[in-house]
Amino acid sequence: MKKSVSVIVPVYNTEEFLKECLRSIVDQTYKNLQIIVVNDASTDQSAKIIDQFVAEDNRIECITNSERMGVGYCRNLAIEHVKGDYVYFVDSDDLLHKKAIEYLLLLQGDESEIIYTSHIVKINKMDEIEESLKEQEKEEDLLHTRLLPDFGFYKRMTVLSVLFPLHLIQSLRLKFDEEVDSYSELSFLMPIYQQYKIVVGKNSYYFYRLRNDPITNPSLSQRGYDLLLHDFAHIYDRLKNRYANNEEICKYLDKQLIRLYRSNFILLMKEDKKKEAFDKLSNVMKLLSEKQVKKQNVVIRGELRALQKGQYKKYTRILGFHHFGRDTRKSLTSLNKLYRQIYRDVFMKMPLNDKKIVFASFLGKQYADSPKAIYEYMVEHYPDYEFVWVFNETGRKLPGNAKQVKRLSLAYYYHLATAKYWISNMRQPLHLKKREGNVFLETWHGTPLKRLVFDMDEVYSANPKYKKNFYQQSRLWDYLIAANPYSSEIFKSAFKFDKKMLEYGYPRNDTLYQNNNEDYISKIKKSLNMPLNKKVVLYAPTWRDDEFYEAGKYKFDLKLDLQKLREKLGDDYVIILRMHYFIANNLNIDGYEGFVFNMSKYDDIADLYLISDILITDYSSVFFDYSNLRRPIIYYAYDLEKYRDQLRGFYLDYENQMPGPILKTTDEVIDAIQHIDQIEEDYKERYDEFYEKICCWETGHATEKIVQEVFKN
User: Fold this and answer.
1) 492 belongs to a structural domain
2) Deepest in the core among 255, 351, 406, 525, taking most CB within 10 A?
3) Do 176 and 242 lie in a common domain?
4) Residue where one domain finishes, among candidates 439, 472, 507
5) How many C-beta neighbours within 10 Å does residue 219 have?
6) CB of 466 within 8 A of CB of 459?
7) Same domain? 11 vs 91
8) Residue 579 in contact with residue 589, Cβ under 8 Å?
9) Where are the beta strands (DSSP E) in 12-144?
């Protein structure tokens, strides 16, 4: 008779992943399954998803807790309902290869053998599974097995992707600890430590999801180091006392404590609130055997002994030396790392200049946007301040007497460390730290159409730590500018911003009201060598999150047919191309001189708005700013379905709220331009509604109001 397997899935608020998880279980090639789902009082839509699967598959049964009890409790509760020969645990955000259980069961021999896979593959997105499976297909021996070395299986501290014989669980009364969220598996694993044969199946894949939002809904492994320390200290203390006479188990627990200390807990001790953590670590280290202490290097040994004796000052002194030595070794590998250490250890301890302001726009790429508007206002009205501009290449011609420093240079770090004020329209590098007294004005760089950060379900950018990094960076902001009520509400949720929102409009848009006149427009056109007798079409598309060469290097394929545009429109129009600053490749417009002007590197896009008669865009935020001019907008959205449904999603009803036609071919774009007067008439009512929603705070005086608010002291 075929062996049956009981699959146990605890669930708490994992609606984002639960369907994929349960689908991967019910679609297993091995069908003799009992599937026990324990809903731990989820407050999202998890219960609804579970009910749908229960209705579709009679192998699934659901147990629902009236209040949240924790993963250990849920697993113990499910074990009481197990009917299978083996028990298999799955986390509700993970997935299984379709033959995961079948492959493991092919290895069954002795009924007391514990069978597990050596392949727990960490993934961020679903498409990474396919890459893992390609690697699996290269394996020659499908069912390679071996006995595992003593420490290997238990070092993982997980019960995932393991077949545990039910009779073993029952006879040894194996239970998970119910008083902790993390490390509850240790109580379950210790009674079998080194007592039973462990068999490894090489090709039974288990896909362990690394959640891209560890802030809003972290997995247990993504919890803060303070919480992980709390839970491990509890379980370590209990197990060390319970197995005080078992030398091997005590040695194993000691090794795990030291491993976690060196990888996690030592980082916790660098944080400001470390006395409480020190006391907790000190108490648990008193149970650490002297034999394990002696095996460590001299620095770690000193830290462990200071912890054991409760010597806080001595410990912090040794720890400081440890981190300084480590940082120094790292700093010697590159000039930038050396600058960072000087920034932390020298510049950050120098006096703060209350009259110094550091400006940056688009990571040093441009002199533009709201930082430019604020700077030029302050040069005129606050001349007693010291101004510093950050650029990738210095030597620009600027009004006023601002110092120019190269981004990531030693001077850059010096001025950031000693300036009271930072003004930027982007996130700052993660390694920059605010000191007491710093004031960070984040101007941001656009009104959002596309979902941002914590409003995004999935992240398709090159950086899988996007949400975590963004959260850390945005905690430094003291002020955030919102151009309209629509943006203000979005920024609060998307950025988790709860400090001062400046609701006056964008400083960068003041020029659209102050300089929207024939003299200024002619001046700009002449400076760009553009014909004064032709109308101007500005094409400013966004970048696509999934189009990148590697982290930090993006690409874009121009989908407009320039040849057709020139043939049909060249007598009356010229085209300005304005690509997103993320895009790495330079467009080749050879042969289109005099008709196409590549202004991607022109600093201030507001000038390009002012000289343009028509804007063509797609999902870029440029159309929000451009709408202040009340000029026609065309949306060239050739990949609308993919962008809307897969990559980002929108805050607005794109197809019904945009103040212009949505087109998908070059021919449609040409026709729209040729009949632009009719389009203006057709979209007048929608445009007026959009203007009232988006431009209601814009008066041409946003800069003045914001400067007065931030620099009122």
Assistant:
1) yes
2) 525
3) no
4) 507
5) 19
6) yes
7) yes
8) no
9) 33-39, 60-64, 86-89, 95-96, 114-117, 120-123
Q: What is the DSSP string of 613-634?
A: SEEEESS-THHHHHGGGT--EE
Task: Answer whether residue 335 is part of any domain.
Answer: no
In the predicted structure, residue 512 carries a pLDDT above the cut 50: yes
CA distances from 387 to 167, 372, 375, 399, 705 (A): 74, 12, 8, 11, 20
User: What pLDDT, on a 0 to 100 scale, did the predictor assign at position 584?
Assistant: 39
Q: Which residues contact 373 (CB under 8 A, 6 or more apart)?
A: 507, 508, 510, 511, 703
Q: Indicate the burial class of 3 (C-beta count within 10 angstroms; 0-12, 13-18, 19 or more).
A: middle
- pLDDT at residue 553 greater than cutoff 90: no
171 lies in some domain: yes
Rounded to 5 degrees, φ, ψ at 543 are: -95, 155
Higher pLDDT, 422 or 149: 422
Q: What local confidence, expressed as pLDDT, does residue 557 receive?
A: 66
Report which listed range, 90-104, 275-289, 592-606, 684-698, is most confident.
684-698
Partnered with residue 450 across adjacent β-strands are: 650
Six-digit token string for 33: 């399954």
**What are the strands of the beta sheet with 479-481, ordered from one edge?**
403-406, 386-391, 353-360, 419-424, 439-442, 479-481, 500-502
**Alpha helices (H) along 541-665:** 562-569, 605-611, 622-626, 640-642, 654-657
Beta bridge mates, 244: none
Sign of the four-CA dihedral 145, 147, 151, 153: positive
Name the residue range of residue 138's domain: 5-217
| 556/639 same-domain check | yes
61 & 183 share domain: yes
What is the separation, in whole angstroms, between the first and last Cα of the chain?
A: 81
How far apart CA 79 and CA 58 sit, in angstroms, is: 19
Q: Alpha helix (H) ranges present in 540-696? A: 562-569, 605-611, 622-626, 640-642, 654-657, 666-674, 676-682, 684-694
| 102-116, 122-136, 188-202, 698-712, range with the lowest pLDDT | 122-136
Question: What number is the average pLDDT over the span 433-459?
Answer: 88
CA 258 to chain centroid: 30
Does 273 have pLDDT greater than 90?
Answer: no
Count structural domains, the chain: 4
Task: Count CB neighbours of 299 within 10 A.
Answer: 14
Minimum mean pLDDT range among 202-211, 314-323, 436-445: 202-211
Q: Given pLDDT bands bounded at 50, 70 and 90, which one contains residue 464?
A: low
